[in-house]
């Protein structure tokens, strides 16, 4: 059962914000869905959007400017929260933004106390699609996934591990090699422990290097992004793709930063990219 928090008409469709009780995260989760006008006639293809550090379900839905083209094509968009929430959910004791609340990293934590709530991988891959299918007219056999920064990391790793679940994947400024950056290292050691073999299960570069099946992939990166060199490590992903022959479309944009100004500039390209592959499903 879901609890509808708000319903707002937009571009002939509807933006619906809702909450539900999550079994895998053991808390109340909030998410949002945009349903295009075509959903009145039947189930529609769906794009999952995973947001980045400190974000909620609201950032993309209010800032990206994605609804017009999604309404034109007939695509639903789903934006979940970025982590579990609640008074009983543990947070970074240091209060840093890159770990804990708002920073679930889209993995299944194995270490205490995080493992009781931080099961975001299972939530995105299994639980949330089931909730959506039971409550909204979406086609869970025709889904793609995208995201930004930490959410770009989540979209890429989830898609690579579930090629039969998602028809295509894209990312804006993703954390490409979390095993090799400060954001990823802190999250992985707390959520997953010291075993780097466990870390590699949630690292895009490691997954491609290990032979993950190729999916249609689009990545956009702003070259004025202050996180590019130290945290995002796009050069490592480019090297792995070249070494393995993985055919990702990687576009670099001078002058663009890490913000939603960047995302809103190129979001239509991503939606149309996914639509082309969703139509083939």
Give a quick precis of the structure.
The protein contains ten helices and nine strands. It is α/β, with parallel strands linked by helices.
Number of strands: 9
What series of H and E elements makes up the topology?
Answer: EEEEHHEHEHEHHHEHHEH
Structural class: alpha/beta
Estimate the mean pLDDT confidence. 97
Strand order of the largest sheet: 1-2-3-5-4-6-7-8-9
Give the tally of structural domains: 1
Task: Describe the protein.
There is one protein chain. With 281 residues, the chain is α/β, with parallel strands linked by helices. It has one domain: Alpha/Beta hydrolase fold, catalytic domain (Rossmann fold), CATH 3.40.50. 35% of the residues lie in helices and 24% in strands. The chain contains ten helices and nine strands. It starts with a strand and ends with a helix. The mean pLDDT is 97.
Looking at this protein, list some descriptive labels.
alpha/beta; Rossmann fold; 9-stranded mixed sheet; 9 strands
Topology:
Elements (H helix, E strand, L loop, with lengths): L1 E9 L2 E10 L4 E9 L8 E7 L7 H6 L3 H7 L2 E5 L39 H16 L2 E11 L1 H12 L7 E4 L9 H11 L3 H4 L4 H6 L7 E6 L5 H5 L1 H11 L3 E6 L6 H19 L3
Parallel strand pairs: 4-5, 4-6, 6-7, 7-8, 8-9
Antiparallel strand pairs: 1-2, 2-3, 3-5
């Amino acid at each position: 059962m879901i609890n509808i928090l708000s319903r707002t008409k937009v571009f002939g469709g509807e933006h619906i914000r809702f909450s539900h009780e999550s079994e895998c995260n053991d808390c109340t989760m909030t998410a949002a869905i945009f349903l295009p006008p075509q959903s009145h006639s039947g189930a529609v293809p769906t794009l999952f959007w995973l947001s980045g550090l400190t974000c909620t379900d609201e950032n993309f839905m209010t800032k990206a400017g994605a609804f017009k083209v999604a309404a034109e094509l007939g695509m639903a968009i789903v934006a979940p929260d970025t982590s579990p929430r609640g008074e009983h959910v543990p947070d970074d004791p240091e209060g840093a933004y890159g770990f804990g609340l708002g920073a679930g990293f889209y993995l299944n934590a194995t270490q205490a106390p995080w493992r009781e709530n931080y099961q975001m991988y299972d939530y995105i891959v299994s639980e949330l699609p089931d909730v959506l299918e039971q409550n909204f007219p979406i086609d869970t056999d025709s889904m793609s996934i995208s995201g930004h920064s930490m959410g770009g990391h989540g979209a890429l790793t989830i898609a690579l591990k579930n090629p039969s679940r998602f028809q295509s994947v894209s990312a804006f400024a993703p954390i490409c090699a979390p095993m090799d950056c400060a954001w990823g290292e802190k999250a992985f050691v707390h959520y997953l422990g010291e075993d780097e073999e466990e870390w590699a299960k949630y690292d895009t570069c490691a997954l491609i290097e290990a032979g993950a099946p190729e999916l249609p992939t689009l990545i956009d990166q702003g070259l004025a992004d202050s996180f590019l060199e130290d945290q995002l490590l796009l050069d490592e992903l480019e090297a792995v793709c070249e070494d393995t022959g993985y055919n990702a479309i990687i576009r670099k944009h001078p002058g663009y930063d890490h913000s939603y100004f960047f995302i809103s500039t190129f979001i239509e390209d991503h939606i149309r990219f996914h639509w082309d592959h969703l139509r083939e499903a």
